[in-house]
Amino acid sequence: MSILVCILLVLTGAFAFLTNRDMFSPGKFYLVSFSIFYAGALASPEQYELWLLMLLVLLVGVATVCLEAGAARRFPRAAQRPTFPSSTERNVTFWIWIASLPAIAAQVYIVHLFNGIEGYINIIGNRVIETRGLGWAKTLTATILILNLIYFGIGLTRRRSKAWWVLWVLHLLVVLAIGALSGSRGSILTAFPLQLFLYHYLRRPVKIVYALPIGLALVGCAMVIGVVRNGLRADQGAVSTGIDSADQTLSLSIFNYGVLPLRMLLYAPDLQLAGGSTLISVLTNPIPRDFWPEKPDTGGVFFTKVYTGDAWDGASNLTPTFLGEGVINFGWLGGLVFFIMTSIVLMWWVVRYYQRIQSRAAGCIDAGVAIDTVLYGLVMWAAVALMVGEVTNTVQNLVMTQVLPALVMKFVLVKKRAGRPVRT
Q: How far apart are alpha carbons 99 and 97 in whole angstroms?
């Protein structure tokens, strides 16, 4: 079974490149993500049931590649700059920095709450427990990423001064600093592949010879950050990362994000089902637990409590994957049907979205198109990341920290023209 899955992955990847030259298409992104998050299964290829479940996950990627095969458009070598744009941009730098102030203030507040940088660094490894009740502040800090991506995307729509780009770099440094203080690998590294994605669609297609080394470097950074996050300590101004400790090795957990939860479900003596409550938590999770102590747990919290015996005492949670969340809610048969049907519908919608963005990116590009491309990139990213995530956090983060801020900034930054010049 392991050989079948690997062969199907290679053949699907080859078919994806032959039918659609766009390197950043959703099907290719799905296959690459599958290759990374399920690579840990190669350590135990004899687990037939595990590889059968992985085959179901891969089949969603196969369906996505087939859906997009007939939808691909030929990209121009470089995107056209607007001769007569349908919209004009307001002062992007000014409004982006103004919109970033709540995120910066929220991060300063969190650090101050833990008695400064040194105190905050020492709780990063236990941040899930220590920062309970600060969801509003963490939501604000997370909005700064999309602001920087909008900043960058609009910057690509026409020539900018060096001063403009210097201010963007300063903003990026603020984003990376806040990401580092969050303790999340995604908060630090997500900006870079999405910047490459935006350059690909808004300026000119990126060649694989450049994208592949960048991708490998980001995976390597994710492994190192996993060690630093767990070993980071500060004492009297001296900061240690734990990388040089004898008992520390590079974190390989990224290659088992999809494998470990499925393996745990397969080995579980019996399934304790949530009955759909983890999906309902998408709506109930924003309600503070002080007001509703018995509100439904998210997929990760339920999975960790029930299937690991709350192994980390609430300090960390293990995401069940989208397939696993279907199983812990509806059992094996119902969960597998739920996963296949929902995933294919979701990826079909992403491919349709991709078609619209691809069509717009092939034409004249202005600030409105740039923001729409940023939105598509984040939606596609979230849809694929759901493969190894949980429904509630994925949906809430997408809506609250990405989609809503992007729509607000589009309203603020993009000024529609009253009419277009008549061509003669």
A: 5
DSSP annotation of 78 reads: S
Closest by CA to 199, choosing from 412, 365, 29, 35, is: 365
> Residue 313 — very low, low, confident or very high, per pLDDT cuts 50/70/90?
low
Q: What's the average model confidence in pLDDT over 32-44? A: 88
Residues 92-130: tens digit of each pLDDT:
999 999 999 999 999 888 888 877 777 677 666 666 666
Judge whether 227 and 244 are in contact, CB under 8 Å. no
Helix (H, G, I), strand (E, B) or coil at 364: strand
- 196 burial (CB, 10 Å; 0-12 / 13-18 / 19+) is middle
Digit-coded pLDDT (tens) for 218-246: 777 766 665 555 544 444 444 444 444 43
DSSP 8-state class, residue 125: G
Name the 3-class secondary structure at 239. Answer: strand
The model's pTM is 0.84
What is the rounded average pLDDT of the residues 383-403? 92
10 Å Cβ neighbour count for 232? 20
φ, ψ at 233 (rounded to 5°)? -145, 150
The answer to whether residues 206 and 21 touch, using CB atoms and an 8 Å cutoff, is: no
Distance CA 317, CA 128 (A): 9
User: In Å, how far are 66, 107, 166, 190, 236 from 141, measured between CA atoms?
Assistant: 38, 6, 22, 15, 27
CA distance 310 to 304: 5
Q: What is the mean pLDDT of residues 70-87?
A: 51
Helices (H), 84-143: 92-113, 116-121, 127-130, 135-142
The b-or-e profile of 348-362 (16+ CB within 10 A means b, else e) is eebbebbbebbebbe
Cβ–Cβ under 8 Å, residues 309 and 422 = no
Percentage helix, strand, coil for the chain under 3-state DSSP, each rounded to 5 = 65, 5, 30
What is the Cα–Cα distance from 373 to 183, expressed in whole angstroms? 28
Hey, what's the torsion of the CAs at 406, 344, 252, 131, to 10 degrees? Answer: 40
The token pair that represents 388 in the structure block: 């190894």
Let me know if 3 is exposed, middle or buried by CB neighbors in 10 A (0-12, 13-18, 19+).
exposed
Pull the structure tokens for residue 361: 């990116």
